[in-house]
Structures are given as structure tokens and as C-alpha cells.
Amino acid sequence: THYDQLEDLSDEKAAADPKALQDQLATLHRDFKLESLDVPTQLSYKLLELEVQRAAEEFRFRNDVYPISQMRGVHAQIPTFLINVHKVDNEKDARAYIARLNAIPKLFDQVIVNLRTCEGKGVVAPKFVFPLVLEACHKIIGGAPFDDSGTDNPLLADFKKKVGGLKELDEAARSKPIDEAKSALSNSVKPAYEKLIAFLEDQSKRANDDAGVWKFPDGAEFYKMALRHTTTTNLSADEIHQLGLKEVARIHGEMEKIREKVGFKGDLPAFFKFIREDPQFYLPDTDEGRAKYLAKTVQIVDEMKKRLDELFLTKPKADIVVKAMEKFRESSAGAAFYQQPAPDGSRPGMFYVNLRNMHA
Question: What are 233-263's pLDDT values in tens digits?
Fold first, then answer.
């Protein structure tokens, strides 16, 4: 298995993935005729064809996507993955966790290569991105064993908790992998983050405030591809924009009806401001308020689960759980997002909520 490894972000791997899909499709075309398959299998056949086509198109534009931003990137994804996905059911799993910590320098070196490659073709994140990413990086290498704050680093705290739950190990046996994890954090993780931080601090000096893909050399073509893949249509950007304006007008019409129904005195912009700013619509920005928000979100998800049979014949194997976002990425992450489950249903899907600012 690959349970002790991290992903490969090299350009060689990026080139190999679409090639592997093309080989699979060639085998499919050779061994099966579309018309000989039943309808569901024909759909799978066509979906693979579409996936191969998209992979080839996306490979062409692989350096038009920022390797790291405030919304995505290994600097936050790897700690999140280890904390929320990497299970430690036995000592071997604990060793795999440590191996993954020690693999972070190689992964980050690949990211730095990709950042340089992107910059070489004029693709650098906007200036506002860098402080958010750097803040997250610094937070990840805070706490023990990195400093004397008295609070464990999130990764160390997670590892201790997971190893502490191994009944097969006595206290003395648990201390060894914990010490090894501390060593990996100090000797592998911290230098890797410091190297990435130094690179990003330097690159930020060459960034500007332009935030659209129009600034890329092939930004127009990249945007067309992204529109096709995101919308599954061949609509142009102008057509989609006009559709958006039409929908905004329709929704505003519905909102006007609500404004009148509730008896709000004022125009629609004033109504928006009232809803956005009035304290009655927010829970307190306290630990108690955060706990209530989390509990309410869990309640909504639980109610949704009870009604799945009303709308779906086929339901997911995996459960869905609600989690508060980790502190180290609160300031740079969005309000909420979903992480898909394991394909076999062994790990639940996770809905993350950002509780950093209850009035945001």
C-alpha cells in the first residue's frame, strides 16, 4: 500500500496521469464496443472518454493554476489530511504517519519547483494571497516541539491522541513513536515549512494586485477551458454573465416580495444591510456561540439524512460528519466547505465550518 507516502507533485507524474487514462481508454475501445453494452455501462464508457479528454486539456494548462493559494495548497492540505484522514489503528499506521511527516520536505521541494515554473510563464498569485498563506504556514510550525508555548502543535497533538488510543501498546511502547514524531516535526516538517516560507516571502516581492487569469499569457484559452469543464456547456463568458445578471434580477424580485412581506421599511439595499449587520441574526462570537452554531449545523445535516429516501433511490455508503475547521487554517479558509469521503465508504465525508468570526 501507499499509506506511508504522500502524493507526487512532480511534472513527470502530472504527465503520467493523463497518459495512464489514455491507455485505459485505448484498452476500452479495443475490447468493448459501445453498442454491445447496456445503458448504464454505456454511460460509464462515455464518462471515461470525457475524463480522458478533460485530463488532456487540463494538462496543457497545468501551470495556469496557482500551486499554492489561501484556498488550496499542500501547506494546509497535508496537516489537514494527516489529522482528519490518516487513521492510526495499529503501530504500523503510526509508523506510516511518521513516514509521511518525513516525506514533507520532498513534497514541498516539488511545490517550490512548480511555483518557479509557473512564475517563469508569468503565473504568480496576487499580492493579497501571500500574507494569508504565510500566516497559515507559521501557525502550522507553532507549538511544541517547535517552541516552549506549552501547547502542542496540532500535528503532535493529533499523533499523541491517536497513538494514545492504541490498546496494543503500553505506555512505554507509545512513547517511542511519539518521540520519533517529535523528531520528524523538528527535523523534517519545520525546515520544509521554513524553506517554503522563505520562497514565498521572496516571490511576494514580485507579485502584483492583478487577480484575474486574463493576466496569464494564455489566460483567455485557460478561462474558456475552465468554463467548459465547470459548467459542462459551451456557453461563452459573455453568455454566462448575461445569464447571471438575469438570475440576479429574478432573485432580487423574490427578495423584494420577502421585504414587503416582513414589513421592512426601506429599499432592498437597506434590507440587505439590515440582514447582514443586525445582531439578531448572529450567535455570540464566543465559545458558547460557536458550540451552538456547530450543534445547529449537525441538527440540519441529521434532518437531511432522515429525508434522503424521499429524493434518492441510491444513497451514499459513507456518512457525513460536521467538523469545526482547524485553527491553523481558519483565517485563510472560506466560510465552509466539503471534503469527500473515501470511495469505499470507510471514511465519512466531512463538512467543515469556519468558526473564527461568528459575525463574518
Answer: 999 999 999 999 999 999 999 999 999 999 9
- CA dist 27 → 31, 38, 42, 163, 173 (Å): 6, 18, 15, 45, 50
CA distance 93 to 202: 37
Q: Is the dihedral of CA 158, 164, 166, 168 positive or negative?
A: positive
Is the whole-model pTM more than 0.90? Answer: no
Q: CB atoms < 10 A from the CB of 140, how many? A: 23
Q: Are 45 and 28 in contact (CB under 8 A)?
A: yes
**Rounded Cα distance, 234 and 161, in Å:** 50
**Phi, psi (degrees; rounded to nearest 5) at 324:** -75, 140
Residue 9: phi and psi, rounded to 5, are -105, 20
Yes or no: say if 144 and 228 are a contact pair by the CB < 8 Å rule.
no
CA dist., res. 283 & res. 199, Å (int):
40
